[in-house]
Design goal:
Helices cover 69% and strands 7% of the residues. The longest helix is centred in the first third of the chain and has 31 residues. The protein has 152 residues and is mainly alpha-helical. The chain has one domain. The N and C termini lie far apart (37 Å). Helix 3 packs antiparallel against helix 4. The protein is globular, with a radius of gyration of 15 Å. The C terminus is likely disordered.
Length: 152
């Protein structure tokens, strides 16, 4: 059985990227941290608007779990055109549904607001020259869980 790091290295090799194991591990850790913060903010805003929840801790925890699910899910089946992206989005919506009250449409609305929020925050960071946007393992923008790295 191969590890997540080995699968990511194999995937990176397919796109002719040269990534060593330490760089890969830093990218994964950065992905999780940024996804937790930006995803948590997006989930918080979505949940506040859709189901009137004011719990940022729950949103941050949901953002972290979502980041892990999307990174691992992206490695496992995110590479499958269209179907992989749909499965990742449905998995993410199911996570939101499990952690917040409401039905599937409420969970989908929270997830959509979270996605838009993440895109806006990362675009602002990129425009400010603080970070660049790359993505790994999720729906839309080729993937969903962001990797933000320092700009040169």
């Amino acid at each position: 059985m191969t590890t997540v790091s080995e699968r990511l290295l194999a995937r990176a090799g397919d796109t002719h990227l040269e990534i060593d194991r330490l760089t890969l591990e830093m990218v994964v850790l950065t992905t999780l941290a940024v996804s937790m913060l930006t995803g948590g903010l997006g989930i918080y805003l979505g949940a506040r608007y859709v189901v009137d929840s004011n719990d940022y801790v729950n949103a941050a925890i949901t953002g972290l779990i979502g980041a892990v699910v999307l990174v691992v899910g992206g490695v496992v089946f995110g590479w499958v055109p269209l179907l992989g992206q749909v499965l990742l989005f449905v998995t993410y919506v199911a996570l939101v549904k499990r952690r917040y009250p409401g039905d599937w449409s409420d969970a989908a609305a929270i997830a959509a607001i979270a996605w838009v929020t993440v895109v806006i925050v990362l675009a602002l960071l990129a425009a400010a020259g603080v970070a660049t946007i790359d993505v790994l393992g999720g729906p839309a923008l080729d993937d969903f869980a962001p990797i933000v790295t320092r700009s040169a």
